[in-house]
Amino acid sequence: MLSEMAAHDHLSLCLCDLIRLLWSLLLPCLYLCMVLTALLVLLVMGVRMWLQGARSARRAREKCPAVAFFHPYCNAGGGGERVLWCALRALQNRYQAVSFVVYTGDQGVTGEQILDGAWRRFNIRLPRPVKFVFLRHRLLVEAGMYPHFTLLGQSVGSVFLGWEALTEFVPDVYLDSMGYAFTLPVFRYLGGCRVASYVHYPTISTDMLAVVRERNPRFNNADFISSNPVLSALKVVYYCAFALLYGLAGSCSDVVMVNSTWTLGHILALWRAPNRTAVVYPPCDVRGFLDAPLEEDADRKGHRVASVGQFRPEKDHRLQIRAFRRLLERRGAGPEREALTLVLIGGCRNEEDEERVLMLRGLCQELGVADRVEFKLNIPFDELKMELAGATVGLHTMWNEHFGIGVVECMAAGTVILAHKSGGPKLDIVVPYEGSPTGFLADDEESYADAMERILALTPAARLEIRRNARQSVGRFSDQEFQASFLAAMEPLMGTLEQ
């Protein structure tokens, strides 16, 4: 008993000594924190003054303000790059006394070659030259660098890449046109720039959080995580923390432009800047598809179902093949089956995409539909036009597609579009035009098969009416509409340059 009391008293004394030690360290720790905070503030102010001095010297030398676009992959040929060149063309036409800069990570090319590529790929020629700042560390934002914690790794990498860009050239207005939100505070608070952003796709979305919470296996939520409650809980915490940081970074933007109503909803939920946010639909070059005549397809011997999209996991080509198999099963054997063909048209960027195509071919063999499925890889534009002009149905299956340029192209080409009932296709594209339908929506294997069967059962005249409505509706996504919306959104920032 006495020994227990002695042990208890000894423990109490130890705890008292520990508390006194911690209390004695409290004040020195507070002083140290204050000193470190003051040093950090002085460092930030010093860096800011240095960068603003560099901008003032450049303004005095060039006699004009500068607007810079952050687009590390500007020499690529996707829809995001078309937005970049259309935006530059619009601003150059409106603001003659402003110079323009593009930060790019492309190496081994010259500025002239990049501009020539924009002319060849998009038929866009800028009114006057732009300056290119070639960044050396684009590898920092590539997903392959971060096999785990990819979102966080790419975002931290973008901060360093943004710092490299800022030290190379300090603009008056900075516009992130690729979705690197974590560069916004770097340019705003260190560079003293006015900042804007064009968001094609949120880095993280409330839908992604829901997928992890519900332990739903998808391309961005591996099976070994979704099947493990502990790993799923940890990933939810990681996603929530990242979403908070992403929202804080994005809220630094003076002007926010988003490419669709779906993206708008997520950006408003995360960035919380409704008064500074506007929808600016991307410019879709559909002129080449509008040349195809719209006629009744009664004389077609068979029906082709065409899908257009890169062979990436999120495009969900597996769903297309399974839904098509279901349609063939309903048709039975014989001539009705032989009259249907699924054509998968898309680009292969690398070996991973090529392996994915091999897996899809294997799935066709496994399901017994290989004889009715064709693969068209990296085909030229003229062949793409021919394929879409000869297709009855245009097929799209990506869940929560942020916009859907391929959907717009199918509608312009004259197919009856069947798109996923989510994202941009549901909210912005496959919507009634003057009260009339422009296409169909589905969300799983059964509903896709039902919709395809319903489209094929329509009379040629009824299909023609839907195709006409769809083609007329795509005028909302023209270059001219983009230019007007983009200039209106940028006016508050560009107006500050004229003061």
UniProtKB/TrEMBL annotation:
Annotated function: GDP-Man:Man(3)GlcNAc(2)-PP-Dol alpha-1,2-mannosyltransferase that operates in the biosynthetic pathway of dolichol-linked oligosaccharides, the glycan precursors employed in protein asparagine (N)-glycosylation. The assembly of dolichol-linked oligosaccharides begins on the cytosolic side of the endoplasmic reticulum membrane and finishes in its lumen. The sequential addition of sugars to dolichol pyrophosphate produces dolichol-linked oligosaccharides containing fourteen sugars, including two GlcNAcs, nine mannoses and three glucoses.
InterPro entries, per database record: ALG11, ALG11_N, Glyco_trans_1
UniProt source species: Aldrovandia affinis
Protein name as catalogued: GDP-Man:Man(3)GlcNAc(2)-PP-Dol alpha-1,2-mannosyltransferase
Membrane topology: Single-pass membrane protein
Enzyme Commission code(s) on record: 2.4.1.131
Bilayer-spanning residue ranges: 25-51
Annotated Gene3D superfamilies: Glycogen Phosphorylase B
Swiss-Prot/TrEMBL catalytic activity: an alpha-D-Man-(1->3)-[alpha-D-Man-(1->6)]-beta-D-Man-(1->4)-beta-D-GlcNAc-(1->4)-alpha-D-GlcNAc-diphospho-di-trans,poly-cis-dolichol + 2 GDP-alpha-D-mannose = an alpha-D-Man-(1->2)-alpha-D-Man-(1->2)-alpha-D-Man-(1->3)-[alpha-D-Man-(1->6)]-beta-D-Man-(1->4)-beta-D-GlcNAc-(1->4)-alpha-D-GlcNAc-diphospho-di-trans,poly-cis-dolichol + 2 GDP + 2 H(+)
Alphabetical list of Pfam families matching this protein: ALG11_N, Glycos_transf_1
Lineage, broadest ranks: Eukaryota, Metazoa, Chordata, Craniata, Vertebrata
